[in-house]
Amino acid sequence: MSRSEMAFLTKILPRAQAAGEAVANHQFVTMLNPKYRGPNFKWEEFIPFAVGWAEASCWQSFSDAEWKRWKKDIVQAACTSAEYTAKRILKESGLLEWWPDPTRAEGEAAGRSVSWRHIADAPRDGSPVLLYYPSTRIEPELVAEGFFDTVFDGVWMISRGVSTMHLHTRRPTHWAPLPAPPAGGS
After folding, report:
1. 35 φ, ψ to 5°?
2. Where are the domains of the chain?
3. What does each C-alpha distance from 61 to 66, 133, 164, 169 come to in angstroms?
4. What are the backbone angles phi and psi of residue 26, rounded to the nearest 5°?
């Protein structure tokens, strides 16, 4: 293996993959906010959306020389990583199963509404629940699966699909039981 190939495999490829993963995670959190999502956004469109953002922005993680030499490979690695991450996030979050589709008839979506409750009434035994974090001046609204963790001084943790960094500066205000899994689902 040449030095150039070794440099790509050890330095460039991991950064390109991390860039794609970071873009997908960021876009997921951003799209949870209806202000950014728009009224007709469908979560089925999230994967190509995240891949497009990865393709458009992955150059920012590289020097001009690296970008000139490895552009095609960087874009491919970042897009592949963004696609994988977006699919994983959607699967782990279960969003496609319970998030209302704005293009469906009102009656069709009514059976899937979430009944939000004040966070003070939430179970604190580690059971997974849906958590609602209102938007702040700098962070978008967030809905995520999470649990109350007594190991870390009694804090709410997001359990899958998004970063826990938001939990250090924010607290959920509402919770809801997780919806039942889809019929015939695994």
Report:
1. -60, -35
2. 3-98, 114-177
3. 10, 30, 23, 26
4. -65, -45
pTM for the predicted model, two decimal places: 0.52
Q: Which of 165, 174, 170, 135 is nearest to 32 (CA)?
A: 135
**Structure-block tokens of residue 169:** 């500066």
- Distance from C-alpha of 122 to C-alpha of 131, rounded to nearest angstrom: 9
- pLDDT, tens only, 81-122: 888 888 888 888 777 776 655 444 333 334 456 788 898 889
Q: What is the dihedral angle through the alpha carbons of 158, 142, 139, 164, rounded to the nearest 10 degrees?
A: 10
Give dist(CA 54, CA 94) in Å, integer. Answer: 23
Query: For residues 112 and 131, is the Cβ–Cβ distance under 8 A?
Result: no
Kind and range of the H or E element at 60? none
Separation in Å, CA 165 to CA 28, 73, 78, 171? 14, 30, 22, 12
- Tens digit of each residue's pLDDT (9 = 90 or more) over 134-157: 877 766 777 888 888 877 667 777
Listed residue (150, 155, 146) closest to 178, CA to CA: 146
